[in-house]
Amino acid sequence: MTLARVIGGRYHLTEKIGHGGMGQVWAGHDERLARPVAVKLLRTDLLLAATGGTDPTTADRLRHGDDLRRRFLRECRTTAALDHPGLVTVFDAGEEGGELYLVMQRVPGVSLADLIAEDAPFPVERAVAVAAQLCAALAAVHAVRVVHRDLKPSNVMVREDGRTVLLDLGIATALDPEATRLTLTGVPIGSPSYMAPEQALSAAVDPRSDLYALGCLLHEMLTGEGPFRAPTALGLLRRHVDDPPVPLRDLRPEVPATLERLVLDLLAKRPGDRPADAQEVYGRLLPLLPAAVSVPQPRFGPLPDPARPYRYPLQPQPRPEGVAPAAPPRVEPPPFLLAAVPNPPAPAVPQGPRPAPAPAPASAPPVPAEEDFAAACARLSDLVDAGRRPEVLDLAARLLARGRSELGDGAGMVRTVRTIYARTLLQERRHHEALAEYRALAATAEGGPHGRRALEPRHRVAECLEQLGRGAEALTEYQALLAVWPETEPERLLDLRERVGVLLASLGETEAAWSWLLQLLFDRERRDGPHHPAVRRLRQTLDTLQPHRTNATPWPPRA
Questions:
Q1: Are residues 128 and 98 part of one domain?
Q2: Which residues are catalytic?
């Protein structure tokens, strides 16, 4: 398959983002509506084998294939009719070149699998928030007599605003006429780490099988590991069938007893011993969810927080970095006033020195003058949403050259374009170029390079310097930021302190780094508890420093 392939006459496939035994998932672009999509391709020959479609005659095989296609399209219609914010939207389905295809919304964000790898074990409120959102989605699915069968972290996306979205819905059901199982060389549908005992035994499944998988997810989010481990898939399935799970509070004592009881109930071996449905599970999670607050939500952090939708329900998204508030519309005076003043005075132009312009990006051809600058900025935003970084960089560079010439470096739209350009350079690991752009953003910020609006660009400057191996310069910048960063952002202050300590260690200041990071560990542990990922990371760093110390101060015992 090539990148030039187009499915259904309109879906341009751009990049493979997943695959399995019976098909592939591609990132794509809907050329008719100009929006990003995900396209799942399923090979009918493998599906026929998987569902027993190995009839002895060609006529029987064709008839079986037609039945499979009809079931697939019928189930796609069922899932497309579901309207829930926690479910991926189905746009289209069909068949082309011997493959069934399903076109879905491409959900931006981070997979729950990546979030667990980056940040587990989760705080209790965060894990509960994920589970509660999945319960709401599962309740909608189960209401139309569909069972997901493969609930696992990689099938859950967490958007930037913390909203979770359940992916890959309905495919298993679509391929199985009895809505029980789909086997390929005797292997049941699902992932062994999250498979209910009845699934492992290839028995009939129902919505309570999805609830068992939800219990596995909760256990993993709260402890960093699934409830069972084994060296082989067969051994893992056997443990799901035979072994009791370890109670959560044996592994993490601060977990509420009610949550431990719920997870044990979800992981019951017999479906009848589990909660009756997703609504019941949600009701038991409800008292543990974070309460709504009456303040505007802060800017999004580097990782999405699934508890955010509960803390800031229905609030507008925070303004992105570098985007100024919308200016009030200009109101022109009525014509009779203009007639009364033949030569109205020109509006006052603020005087004073302007910041020195930053060097324009190299070899950036200008945006055509006939294209409206605001329209070109909107086109840039669409490219960002579609994740088309090379095109973002090209257009942003050209817009930046034109905007600086026409509007000046300090104009709001120019700063927005520069912010997009700098952020994309950073994502592409072009740190030297990103450094120049972030320095320009800091220099042209309202209030000057030492003002409040320059802090975020200066933080990115320090990150770039660190990535470029210029540790001493990065350390100086981090220390300067630490002295002026507002106390209202304690998490950022703690992160800055950690970067200072790590850089001290990298520059050979072992004792200074040890003392600095040890105090940070005490502060972090007192604030977040002994199992927080940052606390564990700090302990690991101190363990690494210990053999290189000249001072014999003993390393404190673990909490």
A1: no
A2: 150
